[in-house]
Write a structure and sequence with these properties.
Length: 430
């Protein structure tokens, strides 16, 4: 099995510790971005001091949620976040969930709640990411281009021979969520991304609370009992209860309502997120609606022209971000609830995520210090020989006694002189 420790150290060094490499249960690497726990107030104006629901799994708050830096590829039915690759496409919702969970304990498809938190962070910090939303380039900044990974056919009626998908992370810094190379890449355009733990069911908004969709045994099947509806006061109730939040299409705008859905046509409709309206029966949108991009925290504000789409017939699961041809409609606030879970296409992909837990981010040669339960990427101080580590303790092998060392040397000179395994067995710890 290859050893990717040097790769991990290089990524952490180049990003100043803001990116890391996490391994699945086969020891295969993914480049990840730690996104720290935040309150509602840190993500949008008027928010409370309550922790955003993205950072809670199984009633436990997580200090960090790790999200794939890059849209994922698939190798041996496992999802991986790697740079300069053509992202996996033609993947339906259930396949995306499986590819992520195949990586081992804790891994899962990016929760919709986490996507929402990242989108709110981008707007709050003035770094709404641009991206490949106009055939290999950004619609508003045509000089910003990525490296093409696929092309439209020469015989196509529209944009023949032009780039479609771009290689992951190949765009400029403004294509990252924080406008820096250490950010999350390609959230705007390139390919739509399946997100987990939210759906529209006959117009009723339903969620698997918090980020509980990350649990290995969390069922997101059509008939799963984990799905909850949201009452007009923000509380969670069983689907079909009275006064639950729904999306409707009224006067050519998406409307948040607690009443009956009036638009029942089986077809796609949509409009700018900023233009969403409140039904007369709702005096205000509950905080959870703003936290999960169900209603804008600043109606009429600047959300980059991003669209929300919906279909109120049957079960519809969220695709986020847009694709290479969505133009100004694409972006972190672009949410598409037109598609059934079986839909797959050349413009649909996904990315995996992982909540923080003991052992994550621990480099080879270190063990967890006593009393530290939640680990993030190790600080630079931990790698300095001259400074004591507060989070990690260096684990080194004890030097051999002279008699033992003499015997070992004799063995090396003799029977195992040509063995390559001895090189690894006698290697010093990291």
């Amino acid at each position: 099995m290859p050893n990717f420790d040097d790769f991990k150290l290089a990524i952490e060094a180049m990003s100043g510790g803001k990116n890391t490499v996490l391994f699945d249960d086969l020891g295969m690497p993914s480049v990840m971005v730690p996104f720290p726990k935040m309150t509602m107030a840190e993500l949008f104006e008027g928010g409370s001091q309550n922790t955003h629901p993205a950072f809670r799994v199984e009633s436990t708050e997580k200090d960090v949620m790790y999200i794939s830096k890059f849209q994922n590829i698939v190798l041996n039915d496992r999802a991986y976040s790697l740079p300069m690759r053509d992202p996996k496409t033609y993947v339906n919702f259930d396949q995306a969930v499986t590819f992520c969970r195949n990586k081992g304990n804790g891994w899962g498809l990016t929760p919709y709640a986490l996507w929402s938190a990242i989108a709110l962070w981008c707007r709050k910090n003035g770094t709404m990411p641009r991206g490949n939303n106009n055939w290999g380039k950004d619609a508003a900044y045509a000089h910003e281009k990525g490296v093409p990974a696929a092309f439209e056919s020469e015989g196509a009626e529209s944009h023949p021979g032009e780039p479609t998908r771009c290689l992951t992370g190949s765009g400029p810094a403004t294509w990252y969520h924080n406008w820096l190379p250490d950010g999350i890449a390609d959230l705007n355009g390139n390919v739509w991304e399946w997100c987990a733990g939210m759906r529209l069911n006959n117009g009723e908004i339903q969620i698997i609370p918090y980020s509980n969709c990350m649990m290995a045994d969390a069922s997101m099947a059509v008939g799963s009992t984990l799905w909850k509806a949201i009452k007009d006061d923000g509380s969670l109730v069983d689907p079909g209860s009275a006064d639950t939040l729904k999306w409707d299409w009224v006067s050519s705008k998406v409307q948040l309502t607690k009443g009956s859905v009036t638009y029942t046509t089986d077809g796609s409709v949509g409009g700018q997120y900023k233009d969403m309206t409140l039904a007369s029966g709702l005096s205000a949108a509950p905080e959870i609606a703003k936290a999960l991009l169900l209603y804008p925290d600043e109606p009429g504000g600047d959300y980059g022209g991003d669209y929300h789409y919906l279909n109120t017939r049957g079960e519809r699961l969220p695709l986020c971000g847009g694709s290479w041809y969505d133009g100004s409609n694409a972006g972190v606030f672009n949410v598409n609830l037109n598609n059934t879970r079986t839909n797959s296409n050349s413009n649909i992909g996904f990315r995996s995520a992982l909540p923080s837990y003991a052992g994550i981010g621990t480099p080879t040669g270190y063990r967890q210090c006593e009393g530290i339960k939640e680990l993030t990427s190790p600080p630079v101080e931990c790698r300095r020989k001259t400074e004591p580590c507060r989070r990690y303790k260096r684990v080194r092998r004890q030097p051999r006694k002279p008699q033992i060392a003499e015997k070992v040397n004799a063995v090396k000179r003799g029977k195992y002189e040509k063995s390559r395994k001895m090189k690894h067995e006698n290697q010093e710890c990291f």
